[in-house]
Amino acid sequence: MGKSRVLTDWEIDSVMNGLIGRSHGERNRCLVLMSFWLSPKELSELKIGDVIDGDGQVLDEIRLVKKSGENRTIYVNLRLKGVIESYIKVLNTNTHKNPFFYSQKSTLEGMSSNTISQLFLQIYSEFGIKGCSASSGRKTLVNRMMNFGIKQKVIKRLSGHSAHSKLPIGNSKPMFAPKLLIHLI
Fold first, then answer.
1. Residue 74 gets which letter from DSSP?
2. Residue 64 per-residue DSSP state
3. What is the pTM of this model?
4. For site-directed labelling of 127, which of 13, 23, 44, 120 has its Cα 20 to 30 A away?
5. Are 25 and 154 in contact (CB under 8 A)?
6. How many angstroms from the chain centroid is the CA of residue 156?
């Protein structure tokens, strides 16, 4: 398929609004918004306990620990929090060890990263958005951060990219507080 492209605000809104009321719509809306921060592999590994606390409240920060031992924090903005809250209402489980994104077969089974990638192709295709994939969300976020002049080191940390070579080249300006960046999407 080649490289995925950056999404426009109109495309993001079209997908988010178009998924309302569809089968698995809340799950898919949550997947779409979380894809701006997480790769398909990270989405597939996410557990309910990574996203909500013991009282069922959405966490303000999602903390990921990679196999390498490296930590990564995703700051949850109001838009994402609302989508997660809507999704939690349709989950049939609150067991913190269960996968956060259920498969079509069962709410107790998670989706593989390949299934998530295929689902994104299907979603974008259904809405007539060409050239987009599961990577389009993160690519859009990285593009927006670069346009704001965020340092590549900060972008790499926030987006979870392992190498600067995966980031578009741009100018660096003084570092902004990462919590302020959550409002870019």
1. E
2. E
3. 0.83
4. 44
5. no
6. 15
Which residue ranges form the domains of the chain, and what is each CATH number? 9-126 (1.10.443.10), 136-184 (no CATH)
Closest CA to 62 of 29, 30, 104, 19: 30
Residue 52 DSSP one-character state: B
pLDDT 10s digits, 24-68: 999 999 999 999 999 999 999 999 999 999 888 999 999 988 777
Cα 96 from chain centre: 19
10-18 contacts, C-beta under 8 A, 24 or more apart: 11/127, 11/129, 11/132, 12/140, 12/185, 14/127, 14/129, 15/123, 15/124, 15/127, 15/129, 16/83, 18/126, 18/127
| Residue where the block lists tokens 């557990």 | 47
Alpha helix segments (H runs only) across the chain? 9-18, 25-34, 40-45, 48-51, 78-90, 113-126, 136-147, 152-159, 178-181
